[in-house]
């Protein structure tokens, strides 16, 4: 499923394609649509296969199984253009693998809070299961806990609207048993990515607390055209939602250069 926004005044740059995180949908980017449109970017936000409003293609159980499907979507939607890929978390890992497998489709890659680095011993958070619970209130308590454990560093951000958005997303997750995020699959893919690559992480990302120097070093060592990593102070994993002003101040200059 594709969601499209056209700016009032286009900046002439290649379309920007957004991939969301695991157990999510395009709404992981809900606070980014306005700033990106104001900067003149044409936006296409994807509900990845098995998430949001997208069905699960036959045989797809993880990110590596959806690359051909996503490549076909891009090839049909943009037959004469390359695109810029902006991927959050699971979507950043997926975008990296896609850019490696189909370099002719992608002219720039920006990953945000992406896993697939291989530092699995750096993941101290633990999420609580909720699908087995019958009581909606007990489910809600666990959703709130999970938001604070993984997604958001500032607990004050966990308000009614944020919880409702999160719950709507996780209830439509049809790929709950995916596993490759805990491997080094993104680092291995970056070796084959031909376009410029940049990264943005919340400085307090629960995926890699106190390990972002290692993450940055691995990315830099395995990327041909490394544009660097930017860290958003005080922000957690869902950095573009938690601190949109600082996030877009970091992102927009990366996207500004014509290629």
Automatic annotation (TrEMBL):
<dbReference type="InterPro" id="IPR050266">
    <property type="entry name" value="AB_hydrolase_sf"/>
</dbReference>
<dbReference type="Pfam" id="PF00561">
    <property type="entry name" value="Abhydrolase_1"/>
</dbReference>
<keyword id="KW-0378">Hydrolase</keyword>
<dbReference type="InterPro" id="IPR000639">
    <property type="entry name" value="Epox_hydrolase-like"/>
</dbReference>
<protein>
    <submittedName>
        <fullName>Alpha/beta hydrolase</fullName>
    </submittedName>
</protein>
<dbReference type="InterPro" id="IPR000073">
    <property type="entry name" value="AB_hydrolase_1"/>
</dbReference>
<feature type="domain" description="AB hydrolase-1">
    <location>
        <begin position="15"/>
        <end position="124"/>
    </location>
</feature>
<dbReference type="InterPro" id="IPR029058">
    <property type="entry name" value="AB_hydrolase_fold"/>
</dbReference>
<dbReference type="GO" id="GO:0016787">
    <property type="term" value="F:hydrolase activity"/>
</dbReference>
């Amino acid at each position: 499923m594709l969601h499209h926004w056209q700016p009032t005044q286009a900046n002439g740059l290649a379309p920007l394609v957004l991939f969301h995180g695991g157990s999510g949908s395009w709404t992981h980017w809900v606070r980014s649509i306005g700033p990106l449109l104001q900067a003149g970017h044409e936006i296409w936000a994807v509900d990845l296969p098995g998430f949001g409003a997208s069905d699960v293609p036959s045989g797809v159980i993880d990110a590596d199984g959806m690359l051909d499907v996503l490549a076909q979507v891009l090839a049909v939607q943009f037959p004469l253009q390359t695109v810029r890929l902006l991927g959050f978390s699971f979507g950043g890992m997926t975008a990296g693998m896609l850019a490696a497998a189909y370099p002719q489709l992608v002219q720039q890659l920006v990953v945000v809070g992406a896993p697939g680095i291989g530092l699995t011993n750096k993941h101290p958070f633990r999420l609580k299961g909720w699908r087995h619970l019958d009581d909606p209130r007990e489910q809600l308590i666990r959703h709130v806990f999970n938001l604070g454990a993984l997604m958001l560093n500032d607990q004050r951000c966990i308000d009614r609207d944020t919880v409702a958005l999160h719950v709507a997303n996780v209830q439509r997750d049809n790929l709950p048993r995916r596993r490759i995020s805990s491997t080094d699959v993104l680092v291995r893919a970056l070796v084959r990515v031909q376009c410029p690559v940049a990264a943005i992480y919340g400085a307090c990302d629960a995926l890699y607390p106190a390990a972002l120097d290692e993450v940055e070093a691995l990315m830099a060592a395995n990327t041909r055209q490394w544009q660097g990593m930017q860290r958003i102070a005080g922000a957690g994993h869902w950095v573009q939602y938690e601190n949109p002003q600082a996030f877009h101040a970091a992102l927009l200059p990366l996207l500004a250069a014509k290629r």
